[in-house]
Amino acid sequence: MPRYFFHIANGKTFKDDLGELFLGVAEAMAHATDIAKVLGEDAGWRDCSVVVEDENGTEIGRVLVNED
To answer: Which neighbouring-strand residues pair with 64?
Structure first.
């Protein structure tokens, strides 16, 4: 299974050095959406992005953190 990394970006980038294993891009992006929802509960993280990278360091998507 490929490993995906979930960085938090808000002008600075908070790197995820461990990552998580998922079957593919769809599952990784769904996880990024879940992370963004949790972060959106804290006003300090709103308008940040969860940046998803594959194990080669290629960005495969972003999810904006907003209040639900």
So the answer is: 49
